[in-house]
C-alpha cells in the first residue's frame, strides 16, 4: 500500500475531463489496493504563487544559506515539496491550453523545482534529480484530437517527462489522454481509456 498525491488544475472543476480522467485513475488504483492514503490538491482552489524578484532570488539560493525571513517566501514551495516527497504515486491532471499545460500546473511545477531540494549537480557538473522511485500518472484532456496534430505540436508529454526527469529525478511516467472533448455530443468512457492500468 502506497501514499498517493492527486493534483488537478482545470478551471472547469468537476466538469473537467482531465479531472474526471485522473479521478478514474485514482479509483482504479484504490480498487487494486495500491493506495493507502490520498492527498488531494486542486490548484485552482489554492493557486500557486507566481515568482516575484524576491522569491526567485531565494529559489536559487542553497537551502543552507536561507534565513528565516527568506524562508517565509518558500511556504507554499515547502508545502508542496513535502507532499511530493511523501507520495509514492502522483496523479496529475491537466487540460491542454494553447498546446501547453494549464497555467496553475506550470506555476506549481515552478514552485516545486528548486536547487538543493529537488535536484543537485554531481562532481562532474551533471544535474541529478533527488526524488526518484516514484510513479507519475498524467491525465490529459484536449478539445481537439491530438492524433490530427503534427508531431511537432506535442509539448505536454515531452515537457512533463523532461522537467520531472531532469529537475526532480522521476522517470516512470504513464500518460492517459481523452481527446476531442469540444465535439458536439461528445461522450467518453474513462474506464475504457485506463483499462490497461
UniProtKB/TrEMBL annotation:
The protein's enzyme class: oxidoreductase
Catalytic activity: 2 a quinone + NADH + H(+) = 2 a 1,4-benzosemiquinone + NAD(+); N,N-dimethyl-1,4-phenylenediamine + anthranilate + 2 NAD(+) = 2-(4-dimethylaminophenyl)diazenylbenzoate + 2 NADH + 2 H(+)
Entry keywords, A to Z: Flavoprotein, FMN, NAD, Oxidoreductase
GO molecular function: electron transfer activity; FMN binding; oxidoreductase activity, acting on NAD(P)H as acceptor; oxidoreductase activity, acting on NAD(P)H, quinone or similar compound as acceptor
Cofactor: binding comment: Binds 1 FMN per subunit.
Residues annotated to bind FMN: 10, 16-18
Top-level taxon of the source organism: Bacteria
Entry annotated with the keyword Oxidoreductase: yes
Domain Flavodoxin-like fold: from-to ranges: 2-184
Family according to the record: Belongs to the azoreductase type 1 family.
Subunit composition and interactions: Homodimer.
HAMAP family for this protein: Azoreductase_type1
Cited function: Quinone reductase that provides resistance to thiol-specific stress caused by electrophilic quinones.
Name of the protein: FMN dependent NADH:quinone oxidoreductase
Organism: Chitinophaga agrisoli
Native organism taxonomy: Bacteria, Pseudomonadati, Bacteroidota, Chitinophagia, Chitinophagales
Gene encoding the protein: azoR
Amino acid at each position: 500500500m502506497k501514499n498517493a498525491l492527486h493534483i488537478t488544475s482545470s478551471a472547469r472543476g468537476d466538469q473537467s475531463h482531465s479531472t474526471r480522467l485522473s479521478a478514474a485513475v485514482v479509483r482504479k488504483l484504490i480498487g487494486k489496493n495500491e493506495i493507502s492514503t490520498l492527498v488531494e490538491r486542486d490548484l485552482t482552489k489554492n493557486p500557486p504563487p507566481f515568482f516575484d524578484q524576491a522569491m526567485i532570488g531565494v529559489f536559487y539560493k542553497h537551502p543552507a544559506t536561507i534565513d528565516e525571513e527568506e524562508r517565509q517566501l518558500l511556504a507554499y514551495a515547502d508545502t508542496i515539496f513535502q507532499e511530493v516527497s511523501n507520495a509514492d504515486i502522483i496523479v496529475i491532471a491537466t487540460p491542454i491550453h494553447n498546446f501547453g499545460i494549464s497555467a496553475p500546473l506550470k506555476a506549481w511545477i515552478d514552485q516545486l523545482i528548486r536547487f538543493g531540494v529537488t535536484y543537485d549537480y554531481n562532481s562532474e557538473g551533471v544535474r541529478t534529480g533527488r526524488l526518484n522511485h516514484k510513479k507519475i500518472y498524467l491525465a490529459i484532456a484536449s478539445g481537439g484530437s491530438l492524433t490530427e496534430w503534427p508531431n511537432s505540436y506535442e509539448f505536454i508529454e515531452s515537457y512533463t517527462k523532461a522537467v520531472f526527469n531532469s529537475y526532480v529525478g522521476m522517470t516512470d511516467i504513464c500518460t492517459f489522454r481523452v481527446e476531442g472533448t469540444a465535439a458536439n455530443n461528445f461522450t467518453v468512457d474513462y474506464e475504457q481509456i485506463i483499462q490497461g492500468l
